[in-house]
Amino acid sequence: MTEFPSRLDAPVNALRTLSIPLLRGSLGVVFVWFGALKVTGTTPVADLVARTVPWLHPGAFVVALGLVEVVLGIALVVGFRLRWVALLVVLHLAGTFSTLVVQPSVAFQTGNPLLLTMTGEFVVKNLVLITAGLAVMSADAPVRQRVARADVARR
Asked: What is the mean pLDDT of residues 120-127?
């Protein structure tokens, strides 16, 4: 099938080069922001987080989690070890789903997994952030390979 040029081709091509850096930056900003709220004790999810892992000291865990989020966010923004950082982001976000298992009463209305509460929606939206992390992780691999090939060619 033949594709015809579109008026959107140029803007879409320009966005193609910007989309992953913008996604990486926005994901990083969200992680720094949410992490900073945990570190400063001003997050509205401190109790939710603490009740999800009741075997850990609540105050220390929330602050430690916040510090990890800030570090991951900064690494995303500056582009440090993106594949590893994005993997850690994905694993961290996957861990948030433990709330659905440990505290189903706060995530589902009347125990129905199709009827989410506001907390349930807060957790399930992490599917989108997980996908963003996967996109950042997968987009970094070809760049690293191109740089490595260029280094070899220069020798």
From this structure: 96
